[in-house]
């Protein structure tokens, strides 16, 4: 039985080192670290990613797969749910760093199975909605920045990465306190207050600097 970390690195902020550090801080250790670089999670199914395909070939019953969040496992709702269910059928346990979720196929109780599948569906739907919202915000951010200062305008570089922004946005949505969010994200309270005051503007700054 082995433990795998799978990371998708598609932007300058989503580094493999950052995702692995997050996982290790959450208490995970790994036998294998596998990452796809420069691959869009919105357009490319996991099975079609070079390292994602290799991961499918390597995983065996009893193995544990760790991912930052379920959005690493597919491009949309259907892709994510199909991937998780495929791994569970193989006897693989899936664990997420964000939210500390665990999904496996061990239970045979119909009620527990229904609750588990409903949670998978909810998280997969949330992942797709978030990806679509991020894409729209990126377009709006670029258009807004160009309108204000021309094609070369970027403004001040953000003091947070996209992964940190996702953590802050997720915890704000759960009404977590600023101190708790600061500890989870590694950001200052002042930065979190700025993101909280105008999440759309914070997203726009990231969009501009990702170009």
TrEMBL record:
InterPro entries: Homeodomain-like_sf, Recombinase_CS, Resolv_N, Resolvase-like_N_sf, Resolvase_HTH_dom, SSR_resolvase
GO biological process: DNA integration
Active site residues according to the UniProt entry: 10 (o-(5'-phospho-dna)-serine intermediate)
Residue ranges of every copy of the Resolvase/invertase-type recombinase catalytic domain listed in the record: 2-149
GO MF terms held by the record: DNA binding; DNA strand exchange activity
Superkingdom classification of source: Bacteria
Keywords: DNA integration, DNA recombination, DNA-binding
Family: Belongs to the site-specific recombinase resolvase family.
Protein's name in the database: DNA invertase Pin-like site-specific DNA recombinase
Natural source organism: Rhizobium etli
